[in-house]
Design goal:
This protein is an alpha/beta fold. The protein has two domains: 56 residues; 224 residues, Pyruvate Kinase, Chain: A, domain 1 (3-Layer(aba) Sandwich), CATH 3.40.1380. The chain contains five helices and five strands; from the N terminus they run αβαβαβαββα. Helix 1 packs antiparallel against helix 5 and helix 4 crosses helix 5.
Length: 300
């Protein structure tokens, strides 16, 4: 059985760990609130871009663009895919990173020629350890998502797509669905299906035809570049918020376990300490009794 000193040292060690996990919980909460606020500031702009793309299709429905599938095509099953994988730079976030890696492994099993573009140090180390080639990694983009970093990532991916090096761009990230629940998402970033922007629900009818300068195709292509950058930025922020939510959940579990363990150790410490006190009292009492017996023998 452990001694009282060993139990006390164990309690002190757990208390120090508990302080760290509690601090990490509070830090993750603050980071998530800040990231959500930044995303809310930019979301109206990209919602407006989406509305303008819909308006273009309502005005010129037959427009052709390299960012969209042809009307007679449902998909492009052939060709090399590019996959943007968003992970975190650190662990201690439950199954957040493992779920993303699992989805990437599924994609690679179906399309072995897929070229990986990785955000996050965790994903980079994981693929290097498994000898999975990485086309390019974007360091420090996951822990501080910004619109500028999203544009840099978008430029790299679009250059690969527009040059014909890849036929499709896939995005694998984690989405914070309702502020509490996270979900790993597999999204085809481009090409789009035109039906995605052809919904006229809650949209005003176009009464006066638009004039596009220099052409409707060039206007649409320019808007699509900004829209794709915004989508990537949204995915970076959603992944960052999901990471913080997963870390908060993990740290909350660690806090609960630490408190439970400290309670059990405190009870064990009290029992050992009480046992030691009882033993000391018994020894003192036995010693006093022995001395009384010695004194009585000497008198006789």
């Amino acid at each position: 059985m452990a001694t009282a000193k060993e139990i006390r040292d164990h309690i002190v060690s757990i208390q120090k760990t508990h302080k760290i996990t509690k601090a990490m919980y509070l830090i993750s909460s603050a980071k998530m609130s800040k990231a959500k606020a930044e995303l809310d500031k930019t979301r109206p702009y990209f919602n407006a871009l989406q509305a303008e793309i819909k308006r273009i299709f309502r005005t010129a429905d037959s427009v052709d663009s390299k960012y969209f599938y042809p009307d007679d095509s449902l998909d492009h099953p052939e060709g090399v895919f590019a996959c943007l994988v968003i992970t975190s730079d650190k662990g201690l976030a439950g199954t957040y990173n493992q779920n993303v890696i699992k989805e990437v492994n599924r994609l690679l099993s179906e399309h072995p020629q897929t070229r990986l573009f990785v955000v996050g140090d965790y994903g980079r180390h994981c693929f290097i350890q498994k000898n999975i080639p990485i086309e390019r990694d974007f360091l420090y983009s996951s822990k501080n998502p910004t619109m500028q970093k999203a544009r840099e990532i978008s430029d790299v991916l679009l250059s690969e797509f527009l040059s014909g090096a890849v036929s499709k761009i896939i995005l694998i990230y984690t989405d914070l669905k309702n502020g509490l629940e996270t979900q790993t998402k597999y999204v085809r970033l481009i090409p789009f299906h035109k039906d995605y922007f052809r919904s006229h629900e809650n949209e005003k009818a176009v009464s006066i035809p638009f004039e596009f300068i220099p052409s409707v195709t060039e206007v649409l292509d320019s808007i699509m570049q900004s829209y794709i950058s915004g989508y990537i930025y949204s995915a970076l922020v959603d992944s960052f918020c999901s990471e913080q939510q997963a870390r908060m959940t993990a740290m909350d579990g660690a806090n609960r376990n630490a408190e439970k363990l400290m309670g059990e150790l405190s009870a064990q410490y009290n029992r050992v300490r009480q046992g030691a006190i009882t033993l000391s009292i018994t020894e003192v009492s036995a010693g006093a009794k022995a001395q009384r017996h010695d004194s009585d023998d000497k008198r006789i």
